[in-house]
Design a protein that fits this description.
Layout: H1 2-19, H2 52-59, E1 63-69, E2 75-85, E3 89-92, H3 94-97, E4 103-106, E5 112-114, E6 117-122, E7 127-131, E8 153-158, E9 166-178, E10 181-186, E11 198-200, E12 206-213, E13 221-225, H4 226-234, E14 239-240, H5 241-244, E15 255-258, E16 260-266, E17 269-276, E18 283-287, E19 296-304, E20 310-317, E21 323-329, E22 332-338, E23 346-352, E24 363-369, E25 374-378, E26 381-386, E27 395-401, E28 406-414, H6 424-434, H7 445-451, H8 455-496, H9 505-514, H10 522-538, H11 546-560, E29 564-565, H12 578-584, E30 586-587, H13 589-602, E31 607-610, E32 617-620, E33 628-631, E34 637-639, H14 641-652, E35 663-664, H15 666-683, H16 687-700, H17 705-717, H18 721-734, H19 741-752
Parallel strand pairs: 29-30
Antiparallel strand pairs: 1-2, 1-4, 2-3, 3-7, 4-5, 6-7, 6-14, 8-9, 8-11, 9-10, 10-13, 11-12, 12-13, 15-18, 16-17, 17-28, 18-27, 19-24, 19-28, 20-21, 20-27, 21-22, 22-23, 24-25, 25-26, 31-32, 31-35, 32-33, 33-34
Length: 755
Amino acid sequence: MGMRKRVACCCCWFLLGTLLTGPLFSAEETETAKPIAADSMISLPSESPLTVQQLAKIAEEAVVEITVTGRRGDRVGLGTGFVIEPDGLIATNLHVIAEARPITVKTSQGDSYPADVVHASDRKLDLALIKIKAENLPALPLGDSDSVENGQPVIALGNPYGLNNSVVSGVISGTREIDGRNMLQLAIPIETGNSGGPLLDMRGRVLGLLTMKAQYTANLGFAMPVNALKKLIETPNPVPIARWLTIGALDPQEWTPHLGATWRQRSGRMTVEGTGSGFGGRSFVLSTVEVPKLPYEVAVTLRLDDESGAAGLVFHSDGNDRHYGFYPSGARMRLTRFDGPDVLSWTILKHQYTPNYRAGDWNNIKVRIEEKRILCYVNDELVFESEDRGMTSGQVGLAKFRDTEAVFKNFQVAKSIPKTSIDPAVASRIEGVVGEIATTGPPSKPLVETLLPDSPASLTVLRSRAAKLEKQAAQLRKLADEIHQNATVAELVKTLTADEEQIDLLQAALLVAKLDNDELDPALYQKEINRMARGIQQELPDDASENDKLAALNSAMFADLGYHGSRTNYYHKSNSYLNEVIDDREGLPISLSVLYMELARRVGLNVVGVGLPGHFIVRHEPQEGDSQLIDPFDGGKFLSRESAAMMLQANRGIPLTDEHLKTATKRDIVIRMLSNLLGLAQEEQDPEGMLRYVTAIVEVDNQAAQSRWIRAVLRFQTERRAAAAEDADWLLEHRPEGINLQRVEELRGILDRPR
């Protein structure tokens, strides 16, 4: 049996390799990188290694202190950076400058400057470049992190805990992949405030940026290699500080904050951090939505960073100090009436532990407000009932207390809000299908004593049972993945079956990303794009022309928000996931084009997709006048037909034809996005991923014969023999052109053999 299975796998890889030589889909080409400027650096006394003392004295002139302030002007962050260009270009970590915060740079000479521009940032690499208005600053030369050796001596400079110009020495222990990032492992202690500081070789050249420390030992840290920084220098995506400060800011049409703290929203989620100015660190934000007449319900799903904190719902608020609050506090649920600004005017109506609250996890809390009572729910279970009538009307919203950091999603106000939990009958039916798997705590003493006399047999039986359960758990995870993927593909097909004008391209593109992320909620990103479009419209006069709207769209998307084509890590899957493109403001030509088209539609512009081979672009088709080709990957650059022809010649070596400039249908766009992911999965030798994407392609276009053949081979390779036979039979029945039917018959013959 084992030999037959092994032979089958080898045969499958032969079929797969024969069929899939080269990329399945030619992804877009990047531009040639520009050289990095290397002049005006700190002058080193010689090419010979220096002592730690000599290096520290020279390099500290280029090291800066970076502080980030909150909305009330208090310091909320401290880190390090270093000058890489004398005109004020400074490198640091993205987490040092946070987001949407004022940034101040203090040089070694004691001069302070506000950051003028966030010159470039990369969330995945945790890197940032900021620009200050300064001249003739000492700058550090950049080395080559690809040439580092294990055991190589290095020094690091920074401002740990605000202790400026601190120096530590150590060695490079090796290179490690952490969270998909290649990093330098260091035998060096890294503390708070060191982040963003330079790691230098003994000739004073930067090899990396200090990024993180190990939690389990003091003298182990990590640095981002400087060669990753070089790529960011070559492809900046500048965001003016005025715009940077508004990223993630609350939409005033939806929310009104009170009593300080930092409330931000992004992609449908709201976060809060910092201490509110109210007593006990209270801060709250009120929704502008019109509250329904009684009875009504208000709900939110939230997660706390620390269960000793407190955050949750507000209702019956007068817009000042009076309101009710229902929230977890110290891992217990609490219902409080706030009648004033201090603790003496607060009345805790209910406060107790409930097993329905899942500490450290997402929890849905809901309040139903009726004429004579208040009902409080946690994860759909009633935990409190109160007849308190201290307040009977007012606004609803969210609140936090103390130093709590919290994340909220799915805030709702309605006459009735559906339950979030699974119906017990449905859950029972599912459990019956997949079988009973016991999940208990530590083994009881009586159970141990019962099994102890037969310890050898007990060990064998228990370990056999554990191995079986582990395999069953793996199968359950596969089953869950398969159900999620099938449900998502079905939703995608349903979205694309509408007439072309009615197809929601944004929803379809988000569903493509959801194939790989079952937690993705497209509705949150729909809301975010609507919010972005409203921001563009608010800047336009009532009589704005189409050219005015196009200019406003380009300015908002590229100059203000900093969306840009990904050149540093072009083939990363994140550039194809539209939700991550929206979050990170970086993507492929096609993903940026989809975003551009959807924003354009919302501000009243007709922009369509143009699927040039190797580089997707868009075309603005005005009601009057000539159409205009636009390249969202290149900052919304206008293209002539001649420049598009030159691009195609450079990327594919073929002449431009009218066929290349045809409008891409929304279904074409989705299939091309899936094909991009299919090609990446092929490069990664990920057959499950390939099967996921090619299945979506076949279901969207059931006449895609080549894709169906690819799926047949992949199904065979992943032990889905019956499904592979279905695809092979379809091909033999329909006999589509371009398919080697002899190869299909060979596969069908293999599938018919007994195993």
